[in-house]
Amino acid sequence: MILQWRGWGVLVFFVPVVLSLFVLLYFAVADFQQLDGVAATQLLLRLEALALALAAILLGAVFRFRQRTAPGKDALFHVPAGYWVWLVAAAALASAVASSLGLDLGP
Fold it and tell me: In a 10 Å sphere around its CB, with 0-12 CB exposed, 13-18 middle and 19+ buried, how is residue 96 labelled?
């Protein structure tokens, strides 16, 4: 995959990925052996929703600042960075909703 960005648009890719990796690292290091599959999946999805919501807030603040200083300069895949903030927020909402469905993603 080739990333095409302009300005600080590359942050749209790296901020959610890094925060999601922290969630996976925490989930791998912490001892969740006492949880059943549904509870572990619910915890993972809620932590992921929290990470994506935090990423949307951080990206929103950064790109609001950038819009005042250098308007129209930030994009990822030719889409302005401000729209990506809403997509990350929608992914956070989807993860939060999925955590309440009682899914079991375990083996």
Answer: middle
